[in-house]
Amino acid sequence: MKEIMGGITAPKGYRAAGVACGIKKENKKDLALLVTAKTAAAAGVYTKNIVKGHSLQLTIENMKTGLVDAVLINSGCANACVGERGYQDALEITSYCAKRLNSNPSRIVFGSTGVIGVPLNKDAIIKGIDACIEQLSENGGREAATAIMTTDTVCKETAVEFAIGGKTVRIGGMAKGSGMIHPNMATMISVITTDACISRNLLEELFRKITDKTFNRISVDGDTSVCDMAIILANGMAGNQPIEAGSQDYDIFAEALYLVCEKLSKMLARDGEGASKLIEIVVEGAGSAREAHEIAVAIAKSPLVKTAVFGEDANWGRIITAAGYSGVNFDPDKVDIYIGDILTCLSGVAQAFDEEKAREVLKKGEVKITVNLNSGNEKDRMWTCDFSYDYVRINASYRS
Amino acid sequence: MKEIMGGITAPKGYRAAGVACGIKKENKKDLALLVTAKTAAAAGVYTKNIVKGHSLQLTIENMKTGLVDAVLINSGCANACVGERGYQDALEITSYCAKRLNSNPSRIVFGSTGVIGVPLNKDAIIKGIDACIEQLSENGGREAATAIMTTDTVCKETAVEFAIGGKTVRIGGMAKGSGMIHPNMATMISVITTDACISRNLLEELFRKITDKTFNRISVDGDTSVCDMAIILANGMAGNQPIEAGSQDYDIFAEALYLVCEKLSKMLARDGEGASKLIEIVVEGAGSAREAHEIAVAIAKSPLVKTAVFGEDANWGRIITAAGYSGVNFDPDKVDIYIGDILTCLSGVAQAFDEEKAREVLKKGEVKITVNLNSGNEKDRMWTCDFSYDYVRINASYRS
Known about the structure:
The structure is a homodimer of 400-residue chains.
Chain A: E1 2-4, E2 14-19, E3 31-46, H1 54-62, E4 67-77, H2 84-100, E5 108-115, H3 122-135, H4 141-147, E6 156-164, E7 167-176, E8 189-194, H5 200-213, E9 229-234, H6 248-270, E10 278-286, H7 289-301, H8 303-310, H9 317-324, E11 336-339, E12 342-346, E13 349-350, H10 355-363, E14 366-372, E15 378-385, H11 389-396
Parallel strand pairs in A: 4-5, 8-9, 10-14
Antiparallel strand pairs in A: 1-6, 2-3, 3-4, 3-9, 6-7, 7-8, 10-15, 11-12, 11-14, 12-13
């Protein structure tokens, strides 16, 4: 297993492009197209928000077949809450894209991210599809990853290579978010590609399991967008024998996919809007997995914990407080809390610690907070980021 | 029913004081004492956080009798998570206070708000009690209200006067919070006094009902402190016949108490940390009261809604998004959203509106957001505030 350069076009048979079609101002890239030479088995996970963008509604329909030839994503406009025309626009756009690619509209995944309540500029996207097709390239992954960015400050892609049955297999991925799961500008979208041969059912089951431990373990501000999606395509062009459930090949593939999703997840959290640090919240010693998760989420969402980390203030009182209101019933007198490796609270009681050392720990780009409930063997972890002035600045006037 | 000057010492028989005993820096007031000439029937509501401050633990014990002679509150130190000495300190402090007032320790309510994990300066508080007793005054309500402030920028008190059975009755109150329900510095504490004669059971039932619609409908950042409490004292010194359940007197008293709690609640939300505006979130047309409440809470807690209001940006997409992830199952295609009286979304579809007019609405000190689900007759409302740079500044380095 090794990390390699590249992203969605690292595996065999994928080409991509990213262009500026005119949705965003200042000629910024805003349309990405990914095409696979052979139809891919595909699986996806989507926002749980009951309000869903029109492009995503169509994609969820299309994904029922589990077969995908291309993924088209625009940034700058969410295509959400615009009435019936929203779905109609998405249909026309995917139909055009399918026609140009000699595919079927139901094999096109379409994602939109941006402002809610503004209709898509359909003509611009149609022209953009033409431009993308002209520029499709086996080195186009980065262009596509750039075109899906909104307030992201860095382009997010990663890829790994490994062997299955003597064949070289690759998994690549890109993501955008600027923090997971914002409603307007920072819908989280991720596209993963692989040239592995694996059945759609197995892929779906595994992808669900792994996204639950990675993309679903990020929080920037607790807001869940109407357009979130993560999609995986497997086109089989690596030539391996189909991966079987329970085999060693399966384990290797699962490990590789986990690495890609984990890396993209941490990139998303670290690049949360206005973030200066990645925070990992580990909750251990819980009586149940659900309890560990609920406490980790409460801490990861707490604006007070996040502003304290921004201020490099080892304010563990806010951590135990967030655990306390998480809804989980635990014994506060058993709780230990570490900031980095510094013990700040033992059995629910404040410990004397070196504030300067704590500040050193909090100055780093990655901060780990560990809460041990000492009441069982279950654990969980979340990734989040600190809460800064820039978060407020970015979000105070997004539409302007 | 008329609003009058004053706060907790407006009703008959109450004296109060607020002094600087040395917990806070710069000689700021940090200890408040309220004494009633006749023992009061009392009721309270407390934080639901399973981590509870030691002073609050003792108060909850003491309140079981429902009889109170005095309320002592220190700011600057939460007396939480310091181990067994925390409860012991609280016991010794209330015992001293009771001795000085010829009362019983179990009749003293003790509240602490401030940093978690730091022991109380018991000697300072003991001396502070002496100083308070010397300064007790029928005009001391404001001094007490000032002494319980933490990051509050304004002192919060209010009082009303009304007649019951020919007798003049008053209700007064004070509160601190700087936004409800912060874990460290902005624990919400409120003390309400009345000279009405009412049984403890009736008082408790009514107080619970009213706090649920007022103090429990405020959110600043969703964080629930370990020391929150609201206490009401009724000393009967107005001389009215005991208020009976279901009587007209009861209705008058309930209305007056609601007004006092509502006013204090709105003061708390408006003075949320860093806040520049009070936001009222109204959810109507819901299928059930629970659903209306859950949607109102999700919107009130959304950092994206709150930063948009700070930026005076009529970004209703964030409002429908927060409703969508609230966990309530509603039909997005029926939702209408108003910002002030401006319709921004009708039946789930974006409406053209005058952005300049919307900006005018959002420039005001009070902003009302109305979400109509058009699916029933239930409604609810929450008060919150906007999310500003100052929220981050205040919370990034509280302990320093």
